[in-house]
Amino acid sequence: MGRVLALPACSDPSPSAPRTLGAGLLLVVLIVAFESMAVGTVLPRVAGDLHGLSLYGWASSAFLLSSLFGAVVSGVVADRRSLATSASVSLLIFAAGLMVAGGATSMLLFVLGRLVQGLGAGGLGALPFAVITARYPEHARARMLAAVSSAWLIPALVGPLIASLIADAWSWRAVFWGLVPVLALASPLCVLPLRSGPREAASGGRGGLELLGPALGLALSAGAVVEGLRRPDLLAALLLALGGGGVALTSRRLFPPGLWRFAPGLPAALALRGLAAFALLGANAFLPLALHDLRGLSLTQAGWLLSVGGATWTLGSWVQAQLERRSGAASRPVRIRVGMAGIVLGLLVTALGTLGHTPLWSVYAGWFVACLSMGVGYNSNSLFALGALAPEEAGRLSGQLANIEVLMVAVAAGVGGALIARVEPLGTAFALAFGVTLLGAVLTALPALRLTPKSG
Question: Labelling 19: which of 130, 131, 158, 302 has CA 20 to 30 A away?
């Protein structure tokens, strides 16, 4: 996850950060990544045990939207207090969310736990970039960034499978509670070196305070849209109108002009990222439930599918890197368009298999194609976006890339959850949910056509 404000000002970084800091930082990233990758696998069992299918979409949307705001808050705390304080607060909030979610006796309490988790996870997701900038010398930063990226790889590959095995052997509650003692062991390794190391220079300005309002407004507005989609009463129309207006208004402060009309260059690249995330990650939010309810797969079998997705996304990223090395920046728009077309094809095959129109193996084949294409197109699009700005603006761009992804995935999860809650039979609900995500994938063609080598 990225952040939406600049990194805190800092004094000259230490010649060599303590090894315990690197170990603690990577352990924290591993824990957050595992939780993020694992929850989707066990959500069908959570919804069944707590009789909360109507709030299924909120279990993902609440986490995502609160993480957006949590990233901004953690940046403000780091800027005005210290990195150690920011890390400590985020760790405590994340642990509290794990405890609430694991002990939930109703789906509403579970969603509340997910919301609290998101506040902490947003801060922890932004932490590595701030720590690496403030505490590591220039020559060591690339190595640490690579290590952080690798720390996300392992949970993406095995997190869903491990979570399903834990849920089958014990309980889905163990997936949440089991992370708390691990977090308690990792936290001192991360926080203590930050407390004992050189203090960051205090920012003389307002830091990220000016972004707190827009970030909170965006999260609340998107939440109103999600709830409006879910509700069957007259209040739904009011929530949709207020939420949609709020998203449009707050987006002006957090994203470049022309985002929603796919203006050439950076706005089109951000819009494409949002639509691609809406399509693939939105489908990922309800895919395990659909496979469980429609095709009779166990959580472990569904976990295998999500692990396949993590592996093939990584493979696609590697393929993209090789193509970038051989063909250069001029080929990025073509790679992006091919990647988006692959997502459409892969999602269509996945949907047909999940709904029972084609053999079950086609679900795995379709998901392989979709995630491989995502790795190629998504990363090529990120490089295109980076090339559209000056190097000193990369920090702001990372926040914009993260926030458009969070916003669109939260809305997609909300749409899917609303259809599952309101449409019967479930087969029809899942067909409509796939249709919505497929529409998002098809719409990526519009911003993709506004990406040209000249803009990159």
Answer: 158
198 and 302 both lie in a single domain: no
Q: For residues 105 and 51, give the distance between their C-alpha atoms in angstroms, rounded to a whole number.
A: 10
pLDDT of res. 204 = 44
Q: Report how far residue 304's alpha carbon sits from residue 327's, in angstroms, rounded to the nearest whole number.
A: 34
Residues 264 and 203 in one domain: no
Print burial letters for 52-73: b (CB count within 10 Å at least 16), e (below 16): bbbbbbbbbbbbbbbbbbbbbb
Residue 164 lies in a domain: yes
Same structural domain for residues 266 and 123? no
- Helices 266-295, 426-443: axis angle to 10 degrees equals 160
CATH code assigned at 409: 1.20.1250.20
- Residue 331 corresponds to which tokens in the numbers above? 């080929």
Q: Write the DSSP symbol of residue 455.
A: T
Alpha-carbon span 187 to 227, nearest angstrom: 35
Residue pair 120/90 in contact by the 8 Å Cβ criterion: yes
Is 388 a residue whose pLDDT tops 90?
Answer: no
**Lookup: tokens for 200:** 């960051």
The answer, yes or no, to whether residue 355 has pLDDT greater than 90, is yes
- Does residue 289 belong to any structural domain of this protein? yes
Q: Which amino acid would we find at residue 32?
A: V
Residue 10: pLDDT band (50, 70, 90) is very low
Residue with tokens 């940046």: 75
Residue 254: half-sphere exposure toward Cβ, Cα within 13 Å:
36
* Per-residue pLDDT, 1: 39
**What's at 290, amino acid-wise?**
A
User: If you search the block for the tokens 């707050």, which residue do you land on?
Assistant: 250
User: In terms of residue numbers, what domain contains 434?
Assistant: 260-456
* Encoded tokens for 52: 């909360």
Domain count, the chain: 2
pLDDT band at residue 118 under the 50/70/90 scheme: very high
Q: What is the reported pLDDT for 9?
A: 39
